[in-house]
Amino acid sequence: MADKAILDIDGSKYEFPIITGTENERAIDIKALRGATDGVTTIDPGFKNTGSCTSAITFLNGEEGILRYRGYAIEDLAEKASFLEVAYLLIFGELPTSDQLDKFHNDIKAQSHVDEDVKKILDGFPKSAHPMGVLSSLTSALIAFNPSSVNVDSEEDMYKAIVNIMGKFPVLVAWALRKRTGQPLDYGDDNLGYVENILKMMFKKPNSEYKHNQVVVDALDKLLILHADHEQNCSTSTVRIVGSSHAGLFASLSAGINALWGPLHGGANQAVLEMLEAIKEDGGDTKKYMAKAKDKEDPFRLMGFGHRVYKNFDPRARIIKKAADEVLSDLGVEDPILEIAKGLEKEALNDPYFVDRKLYPNVDFYSGIIYRAMGIPVEMFTVMFALGRLPGWIAQWKEMRENKEPIGRPRQVYVGETHREFKEVSKR
């Protein structure tokens, strides 16, 4: 197999190396293109064919529906590992031993205190503020309370920064919810597991004891694992490119949160639930809406089906579907929304229009249903996505800094006006 590519431009030939990844992905290395060709660049809107980096964190094969973290299949991790184990794996490269996991959890708990002055910032937001805006702002505010820059050449400094944000971020997530619902802020319980503690901070009612539901804890654990990383998506690329300017971890994460906020990225699960609600209000006729989805003249868009990368069934969707069934069964929830979702799925999987286009249910299709059953408001769905994606963002930022990647600076092809002579305002 050739290890180089030849580009012919105006009769001149230029050779560029082809690099091959450990899973046999191949890419043309064009770092030298502009210099070698006297200014020629490539253009690839949306970066559909462009790799921004090499990475050892997540492997994704969209054609075959494969997702692996550090070589481990997502199915195995969701079934056998905890979210904290997966976070450790993503960030440090290996699954932790029992002692390493205990230390990691204890160090995170030791850093979970959020300065009381951060509450004053939270007080300034109206109850109507979108929780993603609140979360992004509070994450940025942490910079002011942790002003020292991280020495990325120091393992100790990097570790301290990592456990610091892993400890504080769930608190900010819970506070964003409680601000929205008008509940007094709650603090964590060091006797609880990481995910169980998140639920306690979110849902403990004043003057009452919090009792966790293990089925709900396990389902949230799986959801967070499934969202933990997904290669170079919009928010992850944002974290890396902001970090490439040597912005700190908190600043880079805040940028990632804002990128995730967009409805084409993290907001998709909220859009799915809103669509299902609209179908229910219109009588719940799934066949009618499948026909609308196929009608090019109809503005209706079927949310939660298809994926920009996966050209097969999203492996995360299978896992989430099972978790959704378990949660709804355990909580005794008979949700018509779930029945509509199942109806849409059945219709799509048996309709040549969707099968031929490989428009299968994706991870967003069922995640919103689980969050709804847990009592999490729709506007908090993307916040929960961010909570799961946190260790992936950290791992990607850490890898980028340790690899000493250059500052991200894309080129463009200018298509505006050519040189024009300036005219005084009186002559225009």
UniProtKB/TrEMBL annotation:
Keywords: Acyltransferase, Transferase, Tricarboxylic acid cycle. Pathway: Carbohydrate metabolism; tricarboxylic acid cycle; isocitrate from oxaloacetate: step 1/2. SUPFAM superfamilies: Citrate synthase. The active site is at 307, 364. It catalyses: oxaloacetate + acetyl-CoA + H2O = citrate + CoA + H(+). GO terms for biological process: tricarboxylic acid cycle. Pfam families: Citrate_synt (PF00285). One of its GO terms (cellular component) is cytoplasm. GO terms for molecular function: citrate synthase activity. PANTHER family: CITRATE SYNTHASE (PTHR42871:SF1). Belongs to the citrate synthase family. This is Citrate synthase. It comes from Nonlabens ponticola.
